[in-house]
From TrEMBL:
Sample GO molecular function, one term: cysteine-type endopeptidase activity
Protein name in UniProt: Caspase-14-like isoform X1
Residue ranges occupied by any Caspase family p10 domain in the UniProt entry: 188-282
Gene3D superfamilies: 3.40.50.1460
């Protein structure tokens, strides 16, 4: 999608090609894809899905949605999305949004009566639902398993509780916990690890619950949509989530009051290994300003 920059011309920060991801848009065209995995059995899930689906549609993403991520359907959905990324050379970056019940390092998958031969089996499965490791989802799209996306940026957003489920072992190599004073890692030549150029955004920190209103949905998605609409043209992905984090902190007292729960610290947990700035919602920005002297940095 080509953006009109006339209204935002005076607000633009100049960046060089070397400091932001080269999409190759001027040569081959590009597109961005998003996969939304949403357990619609959760109260408020329809609101979350509506917000995110509309936001990505407005931003020109090719969109895939799985609203019933049972074990078999999730496997098929992930494989289908992998094929889309693997066989289309014009995908410049992608997003996977996961909305589910969960614990530390895993998400719980929904079950439905029609998937079982008798109702007792369904009740047992519903009481102790199957789980899926988040790491297994991330790894499906790493450089080794998805070579078509090698060196291209990817974003995972996980809206799920992260109670004690055992220590989460990260096997992605070098990672960087988000620090607002160090927005990205300088671009330097290096060997790609099995997982690189990624951002993982968790709705909450390890051991914490993720807020979700039973009718309005998740504050994370409400604030993300606002940030993208207001600042998507001029802010890279880490700046956008800084805005979202600040907004969540400002509203946390009211959210807890509405939900009738004890107030807890509300902040996103962001892990990334980006070597450049990623203007996910304005991929044309590097070409508009590419080649100009760099100044007015953060």
């Amino acid at each position: 999608m080509a953006w009109s920059l006339s209204a935002n011309f005076s607000k633009m920060k100049l960046v060089t090609i070397q400091d932001s991801y080269d999409y190759g848009a001027h040569e081959t065209g590009h597109k961005r894809e998003v996969l939304i995995i949403c357990d619609l059995k959760r109260p408020g899930a329809w609101s979350d899905l509506k917000i995110m689906s509309q936001m990505f549609q407005d931003q020109g993403f090719v969109q895939y949605v799985e609203g019933r991520p049972t074990e078999q359907r999730l496997d098929a959905t992930l494989q289908g999305f992998w094929r889309s990324l693997s066989y289309d050379g014009n995908v410049s970056g992608f997003v996977v949004v996961i909305m589910a019940h969960g614990s530390l390092g895993t998400i719980s998958l929904p079950v439905y009566p029609e998937d079982y031969y008798n109702y007792d089996d369904y009740l047992r499965a519903d009481f102790n639902p199957p789980k899926r490791s988040l790491e297994s989802i991330f790894e499906k799209f790493n450089n080794r398993n998805c070579p078509a996306m090698r060196g291209k940026p990817r974003l995972f957003i996980v809206q799920a509780c992260r109670g004690d489920g055992g220590l989460h072992q990260n096997t992605c190599g070098m990672i960087h916990t988000f620090d607002s004073n160090s927005m990205y890692v300088p671009s330097v030549p290096r060997r790609l690890t099995s997982m690189s150029e990624y951002v993982i955004v968790y709705a909450t920190h390890p051991g914490k619950l993720a807020y979700r209103h039973p009718s309005k949905g998740c504050p994370l998605f409400i604030e993300l949509e606002k940030a993208v609409n207001l600042h998507g043209l001029t802010m890279d992905i880490l700046q956008l989530f800084t805005k979202v984090t600040n907004s969540l902190k400002q509203r946390q007292a009211w959210d807890c009051y509405e939900l009738g729960i004890t107030e807890q610290e509300s902040s996103l947990h962001i892990v990334h290994e980006l070597s450049r700035k990623w203007f996910l919602f304005n991929p044309d920005l590097p070409y508009i300003w590419g080649g100009f002297p760099e100044y007015n940095q953060y």
